[in-house]
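Lecture 7 notes: from sequence to structure.
We start with the chain below.
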Amino acid sequence: MRLYDYAPSPNCYKVRLLLAQLGKKYERVPVDIFGGDTLTDEYAQINPGRRVPVLETDDGEYLVESGAILLHLAEGTSLLPDDPIERAQVYRWLFFEQSSVYPTVGGLRFLVGTGRVDAGSAPKGPSVQALKVLEGRLSEDDFLVGDSYTLADLALFGYVHVADEGGIEMARFPAIQRWLDRVREQPRFMNDLESFPGNARLGASRSIYDG
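Predicted C-alpha cells for the same chain:
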C-alpha cells in the first residue's frame, strides 16, 4: 500500500494512526499540499479533488476521503463493531467529525496555524458547539460507542487533540480531556502530527485553498 500524505494534516494523521495500530506496512508518499503538488495533472489522475489523504491499495485502487479509507482499513477488526447498531453509531461519529469538527475545530487550527487569522480574534462559537456535543457524550461513557475504543474515537481524536492550537480553551471540557488520555493509552498509539510549515502561510502557498 501507498499513502499519499501531508504530515500536518489531521485527516492524514488519522490514517497513519490506524495503520500503526493495525500493524500494517505501507509506503508513505509525502505530498506538499501548499507547495503545488496537488495542482499537477498527474495528481488529479490520483484524486480529482486534489486533496489528501489518498490510499493506493495493494491492488492499485485509489481510495480518497479519510473516512472511506478508515472504514476500508478497519473492516474485520474490533475497531468496527459487528453489531449493526454499534456500527451505525461509529458511522454517525465519523459523519459528525467531517461535518461538524473538521470544518470548525480543524478549520480554526488551519487559520490560526497558517497565520490567516489571530487566535485571539478568531470566532470560536461553532468549534465550541461541536466540542460541547462531544463533552456531553463523553460525560456518560469512556468512549464514543459502546464500552471500548473504536474507529469513532480514533477519527475524532485526530482533530480534537489539537483544538487548543486554534485558541480554544480545552480546560472547559474535562470529559474530553480524560477521553484524550484514554485514546493515548491504546496499544500502538503514536502521534507524529506536525505543525504547519512556512509555505502554508497566506501569500507563500500554492494550493486549492488559495483560489
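Points to note: The longest helix spans residues 84-113. The domain at 84-184 is CATH 1.20.1050.10 (Glutathione S-transferase Yfyf (Class Pi); Chain A, domain 2).
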